[in-house]
Amino acid sequence: MSTPHTDPSPGHLSELHRQWLAALEPELPGALEVRRRVHADPHLSGAEGPTAELVAAALGIAMEPVAQTGRAGRTGPDQGPSVLLRAELDALPVNEATGVDWAADTGRMHACGHDVHLAALVAVVRAAAHLDLPLGLVPVLQPREETYPSGAQDVVASGLLARHETVAAIGAHVHPGVPAGQVATGAGVVNAASDEIEIVLTGNGGHGAYPHHAADPVSALGHIVLGLPEVVRRTVSPMHAATISVGHVQAGEASANVLPSQARLLATMRTTDDRDRRAIPEQVRRLAEHQAQAFGVTADVRIIAGEPVLYNDPDLVERVDGWLERTGVVPTEPMRSLGADDFSFFGELVPSVMCFVGVRVEGHDETPPPLHHPRFLPVDDAVGDVARTLINGYLAAVELHHR
Ligand SMILES: [Zn+2]
Asked: Where is the Peptidase M20 dimerisation domain positioned along the sequence (predicted)?
């Protein structure tokens, strides 16, 4: 362990950049091996233990448990401020159809590129072993990115960032919407806040031939489903991105002539502004309760809070883009969407940036499979691209800290 630098000069950072990229190259073949082993043996959210163990061993530094199945460690100066680098551990319940000989055949799949992120983090940390890092580097192997309760929220709640005096958090995610060789950062909001809405309607069932004797929650549910987009229109300025999508409706027991007593829906609510995020639930409640009343049933509305808006710190983004350019990587158009990533919990505490690393290989006519698709498989070069992005992110965070 080296002692912390107080003020790394620009020359020192450039030299560190050069040395780190040089040290990265010999680590990439081993990292690719890690990628294949992780990919071949995927584990779902909350059950990532074997993956965490494999990757922690490959990192070559002491790692401690965090957020149940996660791990965190530290390299560089063992005291003072640090920069957090995040990689996710979990796979998805997808039947892999890539056809590679290291494909998983367990009904679980790394279909979101987390195998690539983990391998890249291994290469970055191993390459840093003999370097003179100005700030601590805290690699986090984060569980449960794909489900609730959020792994990032648990990492934050564990006090890890306070213990390591974390000054910035860096995330990188492969993205098939960005051409290979390019990286999309973008200042400000890049992903939405994501919350769930559950509405349960309770009425009085009966015979389908005698609806006038029943209090039918199905009709009320139908009106509520159609009314939810209107809630957004009536609550949120059209200049703000927001949406509600109903993903699940349930009523009855597969019988045509039995009116059920209960009906239920689940919807996802995506917002990009805190005021909208607070205002919509009240209006949803109003719509559901009054529609229910109109149909003689009652409504129970529950909002299940998810992750906050993913906000890329503008000062950090500017510096990340600068380092990317020095690496010969083209910073490209931001990938803003109403997708969500729980990396945003780190951004609530410290300046953070999520970088979308391009994996779309040009020259293919076929549109590449999207994230979470059974054939999503970034090329091996993605490991090096993500690793270099994380290194650039670390250097940007050092600059920001010492400005
Ligand atoms: Zn992902």
From this structure: 197-292
